[in-house]
Amino acid sequence: MSWVRNLHRDFGDFHIHIPEWEIADQGITALVGPSGSGKTTVFRVLLGLEPCPELSWEFQGEDLAKLPPPQRRLGVVFQSLELFPHMSAEENIFFAAEARGIPRKRAVQNFLELKDLLQLTPFLARRASVLSGGERQRVALARALMGEPRFLFLDEPFSSLDQDLKKEARNLLMKLMESRPTPTLLITHDPEDLQSLPLQGVKKLGGGSLKS
Amino acid sequence: MVPGFPSTLDTFPRGLLRILFVLVLTSPLLLLVAFMGNWVWPSLEELGPVLYFTVLQAFLSAAVSVFLGLLAGIGLLRLKARPFFHWLEFLVLWPNLVPVLMVILAVLNLVTSWMQFPFGLPAIVGIHSLLNLGLVAVALGRILPSRLGAVGELAYLEGCSAFRFWRVTLWPYFGRDLILLFILVFSFCFTSFAIPLVVGGMWGTTLEVLIFQKLRSARSWGEALPLALLQVGAIFALAAVLAGRAKRPLVEVSPWSPVLGGWLSPRGLWALGLLPTAIVLSGLMTGLPQGLRQWRGTPEIHGQVLPLMLGTLGVGVAVGGLVFLLLLWLAFLWPHRGLQLFLRGYSAPSTAVTGFALLVWGSLSDSMVMTKIVVGLVLIYFPSLYRWLGESVLSPLYGQWQVAYLLGASPGLIFRRVVLPQVAGGFRLISGLAAFWALGDFALSSLLAPREMTLAMLVYGLMGAYRLELATLLVWPLLLLGAPFLLWNYRVFSRVG
After folding, report:
1. What ipTM was predicted for this assembly?
2. Which of A122, A143, B63, B225 has the greatest count of CB atoms below 10 A from its CB?
3. pTM of the entire predicted model
């Protein structure tokens, strides 16, 4: 288990206060709540993109909150995916390995595994700017996992996909969890995600305070 | 919100580079402050009328520009869905893209062929409006559809008349934008130098011209200093108002419906946006035959042209290169909240102030004067080019920057692999625009150089000697040097707004 303590953000008329929160260290934990409840803020605080000096995040004997964001080794897929449009799908994925300084041999091994798992072969050489929504999604997921993250963070990753692609993406995620059990924090407001994904825990945010 | 990573990337070398960057940009002001001990307040009798005239011409110029620009912007909506719209915008913006010297010369040429030139307030307001009308029209042509969202379509479908629609929505929806554009144009005109200097006449002295006179004619640096600080304070106040208010995001609506454009925009109104370009082009054509005759009759000038043209090219290339390097430096330090706020709010000191600051530094050797002209032009152009175009080249990369950073990439790797490949094209275009403006500079050059060192200075000298036709002829090489660049790179201007 990993423990988040004293997560606090105050925006004057709106505040988020999470005294203690247990995130599963395997499988998927979902963070749910209506629009404006602060899900993305919690997500950004854990990533280290929002300041929260009192925060502690204990994981395997280490306080991740005390580390600068890049050293927390988190894989992230934002809602907007943010692929590098001037690079090919393959270059996007390998960028993560280069950023983490993963040796070439291990990076290639990781890449081959992800390529099969996420069925990336048909569009690997294409530029990210010309990929379809579903293809972009898979490349973003592969890039996030390529750097061997401690945690995978997914911010409403399926929201821009149509129903069929959403179903396919959920299946891919489940397959991924079976073969690469990276603990995952999923932000969603889609009840179908909660029903169809095997979740280890669900946390609800609402009215600025956390409820189980 | 201005994005940025205030804490984790504040490593020592980056922090130092950032401070150095700000020091470079603000160096004219720092030099001024270094001379603060010597100042003498000018008399109120002298300052009062000059301040009044400065504010009056800026106010009238901004009012006319925004009013006509609004009409032209509404006119442009009719053609917004057409495939050639980017070209049309480019043509509307054209007077803003060419050196101001060409606009002044074109107007002088055209008007004097019909009547006596109305030096003073009408001339200043007229040329300022000619310059800024297109900018306002293009900005509003983009803002209007974004602010309207689906409201326009809804009103159209419900049978509202276009006149009634504009009457009801114009102020509540766009009042803030109109005020911001007014302040923007006001600040341009408040610090405008070349235009009041040439067409201001005896009674058209602005604050900027007064500073120039104190420096150039009276050699009274002590009097110029408080005037310069007064002007810098006013620019900063206006920039702060702009930076503080320009927050409301635009809503993307696409595609823009041609039916809606046809409904909202009166037929033919778009041509108003092209009027400044037509005036400038016809003004530059007028007098060309006479100019050729004068050229044949003045062999003493022939020998000067080639060296001056080389000097001009040297200034242009050096300014473009330095602006490119500054943009790369900024891209390496980007994103940083404090730096971005500074650049949004910082307006370069005016030509006279920059010239004054540079006058007190270094010798009067040719190479030193050329260096000072280049440095001065870069310091004057950079802040407005960044706000106008540079920010829109960098800001779309913020999300990608964030992901790369979280993936563990170093700032150097992010700059090399993510930022540089995507900004190099846009930066090259911005630098090219700076180079083109520099080709036509005569204001700062005249302030710093003891003799004619560029073609634009020669043209300015000929204008002063009322040899407008010959000056027009000599301005064409400058225009032809810049034209391929403008035609080739017109797409960058689609990012304005």
Report:
1. 0.88
2. A143
3. 0.83
